[in-house]
Amino acid sequence: MKYFPVFSTFVLIFSLLHVLAYSQSSDSQGKKASIAGTWEAGVLVGPDFYFGDLNPGFYTSRNVSVAGGLFIMRQFTNVTGLKAQIAFGGLRGSRDFNDEQGARTYSFTGSDFDFTANVVFNLSNLFSPYDSGRHLFIYASLGLGLTAWKSNLNETVNGEVFIPDQNGGMQVSLVVPLGLGLQYSFTEKIRAGIEYSIRPVASDMLDQKAGGLKYDAVNMLSLTASFRFGKSKKALKVEEYPYASPVTYQPAPYDALPADTLTPALIAAPPNINDVYIYAVQVCAYAKHQYSAIWVKKHYHLDYSVRREKEAGLERFIIGHYKYLKDAKALCEKLRKKGIRDAWVIAYKDGKRHHVVAI
Predict the structure, then answer these.
(1) Residue 315 β-bridge partners
(2) Could you name the CATH architecture of 259-357?
(3) CATH (residue range 4-229)
(4) pLDDT tens-digit readout, 140-167
(5) Alpha carbon 198 to chain centroid distance?
(6) Residue 21: phi, psi to the nearest 5?
(7) 3-state class of 259 per DSSP?
(8) Distance between CA 232 and CA 72 in Å, rounded?
(9) pTM for the model
(10) From 215, 218, 236, 345, which residue has the greatest number of CB atoms within 10 Å?
């Protein structure tokens, strides 16, 4: 627990730096693909572990109790959320002493209740652009709150039990939880996970025995089940619409295409300004990330050449060009089945990007 303040400060600063740099991911229409604005509510249950003067080690069978709780979280960006949590559980611990006064055993039991507000960082979305098809998430949290507890200390000497002087009432102090968890999304709404939280308390009196360690703690291993609800403020709308500032179309080179994909529609002559529309497929788009066309090709395992279009700080990545809409739609559906959910058909007119085609 000695290095907890330094470690937690490092985690917070590091996470905030990455949030500022990478939290903005975009869908293929240039809108931010986001879960911002949604809510998540759930329950947690599992063992808690007292750590203090009467149990200086990580785990013994004499310091474990059962705990549970409720939480609700507001998701502000793809990476950051704020979670309010209520947790309650048992307290117990004991330790044997052998000194000049003889053999003695100190033991205590009690219960605690705490309320905390926690900033939650989705590390999966932090280091990789948000993907609505992702099911497994790793997250970290850092919080602040109040904990209240009531406990009783006993001293046993040669089989005889004594009750030392102690505060027998309810006590309150600050608690600073730091957590790391793994969550799996079964559906868009239903999730389950596991989390371990280190929960140091700004007091040495959880066990009613002063001295030794400066701060006691009640760590917790939780199994969680939750339900996500509400709609993203930036929910995607798939519709046909004109672009305010069209971008000049750049035809893709064909030498990078595998031979078995060269259909007549694909190898047709480059777009002509007399054509009504020419169609291509947009794979993805990013507003803040600096990715190259080569990276996108490798990341999405594409067999097609990838070209990049820039418009007002947004970078879009495009593949193929087709004279017939049905061919572009077929490629788009193929990409979506591979898990590329931000694939859309784009129409060009007079050599310029014109609209997204709803499919």
Answers:
(1) 286, 310
(2) 2-Layer Sandwich (3.30)
(3) 2.40.160.20
(4) 999 999 999 999 999 888 778 888 888 8
(5) 18
(6) -85, -35
(7) helix
(8) 16
(9) 0.60
(10) 218
